[in-house]
Design a protein that fits this description.
- The protein is an alpha+beta fold and about 55 residues long.
- The chain has a single domain, classed as SH3 type barrels (Roll), CATH 2.30.30.
- Keywords: Sporulation.
- Its main location: other.
- It holds the Pfam family SspH.
Amino acid sequence: MDENRAKQILSSSAEIEVKYKDVSVWIDALNGDGTATVHLRGPLEERSIVEVKDLSE
């Protein structure tokens, strides 16, 4: 995924499924250095910093 699409998803009011290595995640923030802070969908709130290019729809 490119950073512009990640920005669109982050600012969207729609629920858009995003995956990181085939796992559904929420984008919490774009860090401005090619990385994003994400957390798994579901009850766990553990956050990770991942490369935006490794995210997919």
